[in-house]
Amino acid sequence: xxxxxxxxxxxxxxKLIVDALMLDDVTPDEIETDAPLFNEGxxxxxxxxxxxxxxxxxxxxxxxxxxxxxxxxxxxxxxxLAAFVAENR
Length: 89
Description:
By secondary structure, the chain is mostly helical. Helix content is 49%, strand content 0%. It is built from 4 helices and no strands.
């Protein structure tokens, strides 16, 4: 487990994930900061990624483009999303 560099931002993103994707069976506290968001982790899919990108834009004013090379890496985990938001807002 890596040391969190953006703990408050990570908390906000976890809440955003639960709210934006209407995850009734998951609480923000249950989302692990370094766990994968897709496949074996939280199990999100490409539609969830689009919804999450829109929610991140509304909440933090950051644009994540599907066609960008680094998009997959940005969406790897809450930690990578927080780092991206911190650098780009």
